[in-house]
Specification:
The chain is mostly beta strands. Helices cover 4% and strands 65% of the residues. The chain has two helices and 21 strands. The longest helix is centred in the last third of the chain and has 14 residues.
């Protein structure tokens, strides 16, 4: 059973996230090979959704290539995540300025081998979508993903800039254990934006984005003597039905779209001593599942989500050597899941064709998540680049999940507080430079957790004990995070630099395993190492 998911400069910050709620806003400057190590520091718009952000980069022409290997090991992971992963990544990209036009683009390939994985064979669905086709067989899976993006920002006048971004992400997942899932997913985002300078210090921006998703899952059974079940999930341990020995395959298609609108306001005087950036974004989207392929049509559930996110970034350049960053953000996500009660029918007048008649439509699940975070970072500069930095991030997250089944309302609630600290330094070493950073954090639940499940089924179809309990314990538990990075780069020829880096992150379970004892005293370690060129 696989069920619903609940996931260049001299110095660059490695900010290992303690959790999804405590991650630093400086996400694009995690690796020294990335141009964000410079641009994110000087471009207050760097993490904006608006493509016109390219026109404000300090570094506008640069190329980057990376080959990296990453592996993960440990028992402290989400129930639908693998115990062991091996990743190969290849990336090539860069920035180019051509007169009034600023261009950005990249190509990325990823190959992931996962060991001991079960529950969720989907790719790139919303993590809160409860309508997942799943199975209970532990297996080894291979995922291949290809991603590309091209972004243009153009200066029409001194006051008006326009931008456009096109992206494509395709992924394929498969394993060779009955029942065998084969998943293919494509995501196509299109983003357009405009930026208008009102006067010397003030400017405003407007952005619109559409994200299109298409995914299909096909289960097949090679050995019909093995009756491995797959489940049509409704959420929180509740499912519609299971397969039988007569069903050798099962198909599901997802279609989804998300629309996002965002407004930006920037205060940036000529001396740039004090700058401020505000962005407010509203998103609304849906993902709809349909089963059966060409043989029949069965509605597997409609999921809808609304999100509101606001970010405020303040930069204070106290002196030529001292810079402060303060980032405040808030986010509210709401999800609604609608299930169709259907009756299986047979059309005896047209060759015994199977079809499903819709009897009613019911809202079976509602979810809400609220997150507020605050981050402070100080940078000591040398020759205009970061020589030493230190930062602290705090985040508060509240989650509520309601599921409606035949026997009433079931509810889960939990609140998490996360704290994260990091520090890094650059050293001259021979002809090159060595960057090093360390990171530590802690996540703890606030108040009592409230657990609920949508089914009382026992035995081999008991998805509560097999999935819901371990997943709830994982998401709501106390944990410690420790991490660090070293990165060494040196000039090769002309403007070309070569480098090598290694980083590691460890998550340590630090709770009493109230809901799932096997998680007690577990850890998970993720290591990443790579070679890169900046040119």
């Amino acid at each position: 059973m696989k069920s619903s998911k609940k996931h260049y400069g001299t110095l660059c910050a490695l900010l290992f996230a303690v959790s999804a709620y405590g991650q630093s806003t400086f996400v694009n400057s995690q690796n020294k090979w990335h141009e964000g190590c410079v641009n994110e520091q000087y471009n207050i718009r760097y993490n904006s959704i608006n493509p016109t952000r390219l026109s404000y980069n300090k570094m506008r022409t640069v190329g980057m290539a990376l080959f990296s290997y990453r592996y993960g090991r440990g028992d402290y992971h989400a129930v639908d995540a693998p115990k062991q992963t091996n990743d190969l990544n290849v990336y090539i990209g860069g920035l180019q300025q051509l007169g009034k036009a600023n261009l950005s683009g990249y190509l990325k390939y990823n190959n992931t081998k996962s060991k001991d994985i079960q529950w969720n064979p989907t790719l790139y669905l919303n993590e809160n979508n409860p309508f997942v086709l799943c199975d209970s067989v532990m297996n080894d899976a291979t995922t291949e993903a290809f991603q590309m993006e091209a972004t243009l920002s153009y200066d029409f006048t001194e006051r008006i800039k326009g931008g456009l971004s096109l992206g494509l992400k395709v992924g394929s997942l498969s394993d060779q254990t009955d029942p065998r899932p084969k998943t293919n997913t494509s995501v196509f985002p299109i983003t357009a934006g405009v930026d208008y300078h009102i006067n010397k210090p003030w400017s405003v921006g407007l952005t619109a984005q559409i994200r299109l998703l298409s995914s299909n899952i096909s289960y097949s059974v090679v050995n019909p003597l093995n009756n491995h079940r797959y489940f049509v999930m409704k959420g929180m341990g509740d499912y519609y039905g299971t397969s039988t020995s007569a069903e050798y395959n099962y198909k599901r298609d997802y279609k989804g779209n998300t629309f996002t609108g965002a407004l930006q306001a920037v205060y940036q005087p000529e001396d740039e001593k004090l700058q401020n950036f505000i962005e407010v974004a509203v998103s609304k989207g849906n993902e709809k599942a349909t089963d059966g392929g060409s043989s029949y049509v069965f509605k597997g559930g409609d999921y809808y989500q609304t999100e509101i996110k606001a970010t405020d970034r303040l930069i204070w350049n106290q002196s030529e050597r001292l810079r402060h960053n303060i980032i405040l953000s808030g986010q509210i996500q709401k999800g609604d899941a609608d299930w169709y009660d259907q009756k299986r029918m047979t059309d005896t007048e047209h060759g015994n064709i199977i079809y499903y008649e819709i009897l009613s439509k019911t809202r079976v699940q509602k979810s809400q998540s609220m997150t507020a975070s605050a981050e402070y970072r100080i940078d000591l500069l040398k020759d205009g680049e970061t020589d030493f930095y230190a930062g602290v991030n705090a985040a508060l997250n509240r989650n509520e999940l309601k599921h409606y089944s035949d026997d009433g309302l079931h509810k889960q609630e939990w609140n998490l507080l996360s704290l994260n600290v990091t520090a890094g330094k650059t050293f001259n070493l021979g002809k090159g430079q060595l960057a090093a950073s360390v990171n530590g954090g802690y996540v703890m639940p606030l108040q009592d957790r409230k657990f609920g499940t949508g089914t009382n089924v026992t035995g081999e179809t008991d998805v509560t004990s097999a999935y819901v309990l371990p997943q709830f314990e994982y998401e709501t538990s106390k944990r410690i995070a420790l991490g660090g990075m070293i990165d060494y780069s040196l000039p090769v020829v002309n403007k070309v630099k070569a480098g090598i880096y290694a980083k590691v992150k460890s998550l340590i379970y630090n709770d009493d395993a109230e809901y799932y004892q096997p998680l007690k005293s577990t850890t998970y370690t993720l290591a990443d190492m790579g070679l890169y060129l900046n040119f």
